[in-house]
Design a protein that fits this description.
Helix content: 40-55%
CATH class: Alpha Beta
Bound molecules: flavin mononucleotide
Oligomer: single chain
Structural class: alpha/beta
Number of domains: 1
Largest sheet: 5 strands, parallel
Strand content: 15-25%
Shape: globular
Distance between the termini: 11 Å
CATH topology: Rossmann fold
CATH superfamily: Flavodoxin domain
Number of helices: 7
Number of strands: 5
Radius of gyration: 16 Å
Strand order of the largest sheet: 2-1-3-4-5
Length: 194
């Protein structure tokens, strides 16, 4: 049997900051758990926002010819998906939200064009980092991601919310959080292998 493939999405526009460091710890856990992983840093892809044209409700495809076209096959091939993101104005940053919105063709294929749901949901996890300087928490970022996972046929199995990290390496002072990210990685790998 071949090892499962996990897609690890780094959602921050700041490379190698807190959420991506959580993701890297998670990737260590994924390797320990015997799975392969591909890391996708969304900021490198320059994904255009959805233009709301609704063409995908007829064709099942997105008409925008940008690097999101490279992301669709990765989303399709993944046996599990982990998203790591900072909280920006209570939800996920624009570059990551653009990826989420460009998943509208999955919604259209299922709910407009009648594609059957997957027989089995794929495992999924979310890792969030935020400064914590406001009272709005993680809820909006988590709900937004749950909505994406539902459309992709991914279950929301694990969530890690780390508050009080703002400088790019602040999370290095939180070994508890990094250990938990690693544990989530190993657990997600083992779920994907079942
Ligand atoms: C544009 C912007 C908006 C932010 N909005 C919030 C917010 O709503 N709540 C919060 O707690 N922190 C907020 N922050 C702080 C980030 O969540 C924090 O710096 C986080 O550690 C960044 O993660 P990263 O290093 O992975 O990019 C914001 C930061 C920026 C740059």
């Amino acid at each position: 049997m071949t090892a499962p493939l996990l897609l690890a999405i780094a959602g921050s526009p700041r490379r190698h900051g807190n959420s991506e460091r959580l993701l890297d710890a998670c990737l260590d856990g994924i390797a320990e758990g015997g799975a392969n992983a591909e890391k996708l840093a969304v900021v490198e892809y320059g994904i255009e926002p959805c233009d709301g044209c609704n063409a995908c409700s007829s064709t099942g495809e997105c008409h925008i010819r940008d690097r999101m076209q490279e992301v669709y096959p990765l989303l399709d091939a993944a046996d599990a998906i982990v998203v790591a993101s900072p909280v920006f104005f209570a939800t996920v940053p624009a570059a990551l939200k653009a990826l989420y919105d460009r998943c509208q063709p999955y919604w259209a294929r299922r709910y407009v064009l009648g594609e059957p749901p997957p027989e089995r949901k794929r495992p999924g996890a979310l890792l969030l980092a935020r400064g914590g300087g406001d009272p709005y928490g993680f809820e909006a970022a988590a709900i937004t991601t749950r909505s994406l996972f539902a459309v992709l046929g991914v279950s929301y199995d694990a969530e890690l919310c780390v508050s009080g990290v703002d400088g790019p390496r602040d999370v290095d002072g939180r070994p508890d959080a990094l250990a938990e990210a690693r544990r989530i990685g190993a657990e997600t790998a083992s779920r994907a292998a079942r």
